[in-house]
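Review this chain:
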Amino acid sequence: FLAAPIVHVDEEHENEIIMIAALQIPIDEINSIMNVSRKIESKTGTADTYLVGPDRLWRSQSATPKKYNVKSTLLNPKAKMNTEAVTQGLAGKSDTRIIENQGETVLSSWAPFRFKDLQWAIISEVSKAEIQKPITDLMTVIGVIAAVAMVIIIVVSLLVASGVTRQVDAIMKAMSNVEQGDYSQQAEVTSKDELG
């Protein structure tokens, strides 16, 4: 609910409240607006975008119902958000930074949300682990590729080395026989390269 007094000013310039106008915004409407930003945020469900009022209580439903639900958050005094993001957002400041939120390290972006006398903070967060997942996955792929390349290089090196070694052994054996006077010796050709 949003409420505002309707004031009548009399001839003596005194204010008299004659009624209070109240507007009810269904939580489903607020959540549908918040869900637009959530659709592109998170593939693993660790991202959340939510509104917090000046009393530090939730004003929108969490995107992670397994972690938070309407009853455990929305206007629940036990679910006060005492984070740096909320403090800064309610103070009218915007920023993006890695912070701690209820025991979890998150990348948090926040901004003030003002409408007439209404002052809320809008917070968007995603876990640091989710942010680092692509980097971790890339490092794993690079490590596997490097290991496979190393194995291939070692195998090729051993094959080339053994081919060269066999040919050199054959040449050395023939040279040894020639040295002992057997001039009819020919080295066996075991490789098809320049040495062979």
